[in-house]
Design a protein that fits this description.
alpha/beta; about 210 residues
Length: about 210
């Protein structure tokens, strides 16, 4: 199995389900990791691996929905969740999808349907992880700005003119221009639009 194969975390308290899904996914080139409980999954979960989670709804201890909520709260939701359930329960499926689940399937799950759902979820995971890395990079660049550069940054992305920023900060307009240029370089922004987009990606659009 290639180390680059997408990881599919399997969480189900039914050993026969885990064995069948592990075998199926391995044959299709995925890297399956089976867990018999939410607790054992959380002990080894790596949220930075591209892949997805196949999660049983009803399990002893921590349920599937509770695990989904925990992952979202800890911002460890880089892998989309595919729920599988022994019964078609509309309220539970609605709750799961509202929580961001990629799909909700009823057991016994057709292999073709499951594999299609997994491939869709893996593609989504790659996009999510790429976006997370980009945000982390932007946050790192922003953290390296000086206090004054951060003040100028906030003014610029809020749509203020250099003169307005200068008046607000009590400094010369030419000094604002210098800080603005340094800020653009440090943030790797080639235009005002890119700077505003960067601010939006890390929740600073509008100035803070």
């Amino acid at each position: 199995m290639s180390d680059q194969s997408p990881t599919v975390f399997l969480v189900d308290d039914d050993p026969s389900v885990l064995r069948a899904l592990t075998r199926l996914l391995a044959l299709e080139g995925f890297n399956p990791r089976p867990y018999a409980s939410a607790q054992s999954f959380l002990e080894e979960h790596d949220p930075d691996l591209p892949g997805c989670i196949i999660l049983d709804v009803a399990m002893p201890g921590v349920s599937g929905l509770e695990l989904q909520s925990s992952l979202c709260a800890s911002q460890a939701g880089g892998q989309p969740i595919i729920f599988i359930s022994g019964q078609s329960d509309i309220p539970i499926s609605v709750s799961a999808m509202k929580g961001g689940a990629s799909d909700f399937l009823t057991k016994p799950v057709d292999d073709t349907v499951l594999l299609s759902a997994v491939r869709i979820a893996v593609d989504r995971s790659k996009d999510m992880l790429r976006s997370r890395r980009e945000r982390a990079s932007i946050k790192d660049r922003f953290a390296k700005l000086s206090a004054r550069e951060k003040e100028v940054f906030s003014g610029v992305v809020a749509g203020m003119l250099n003169k307005q920023i200068a008046d607000k900060l009590g400094i010369a307009e030419k000094t604002v221009k210098v800080h603005r240029g340094r800020t653009m370089r440090k943030m790797a922004a080639r235009s005002l639009a890119e700077l505003v987009l960067a601010a939006d990606r890390i929740g600073l659009a509008g100035g803070h």
